[in-house]
Specification:
The chain has about 240 residues and is mostly helical. Helices cover about 65% and strands about 5% of the residues. Helix 4 runs parallel beside helix 6 and helix 5 (about 90-115) runs parallel beside helix 7 (about 160-180). It is a multi-pass membrane protein.
Amino acid sequence: MQMESVLLKLLFPSPFLVKAMSAVPVATLGYAGLSEVRGKHMQYSKFLNVGEKKPIEKKIRVSSRTGMLIAYTPPFLAGAASFGIFPDGDLRFLLVKSTLTFHFFKRILEVLFVHRYSGGMAVESLIPIALSYFTSSVFVIYAQHLAQGLPEPAIDLMYPGLMLFLIGISGNFYHHCLLSKLRGRKGQGIQAQTLYAFAFTVGTTLYLMGRSYSTRRWYLSQFKDFSKDVKALVPFVF
């Protein structure tokens, strides 16, 4: 019985732990975004071995396609499993499970059928990326599970959030298709309303801001005809 109790605590952590974990993505992903700006990049895609002192030959690597599949599959399986682990729930909980599962399912399909890869991914970067996707998905779903039965928020963002998700994921897929067409097959072309969910969104935004800033700087260094009017975050401004 004691072993069973320990397993239940591991599988279903306390609400306090979920709240405490909310600080983790803001801190870690925010730091990762700042590191991108400073030139310390996550080692994948065009930034593989950029700004690194250790030679690329001494790093354990996998192909970009394999790395992305490893990163996206566990959170997809976690989302799919949540329908069996938590079969009941309100509409808000159903939307959280569905959008997360669909998002990573889309990512897997893009890795297999849309993207054209030519580089690799360092395992030292793959591990934290995969863990981040997996743990964030698990905690977002579980946090929403705990929130069931609580009073509805004063400002209900469920339907605006769903609309933004549909617009965002459609635009994301469209631009991924455009980018895949810019790369030749044999050569390189142009390259919920819970505290934890909010915290992870903020952390991810901070990281992607840093990555976007570094990507624009990389384009300027690699392509002489790349327009300086193309900005990283705010069109025509920054």
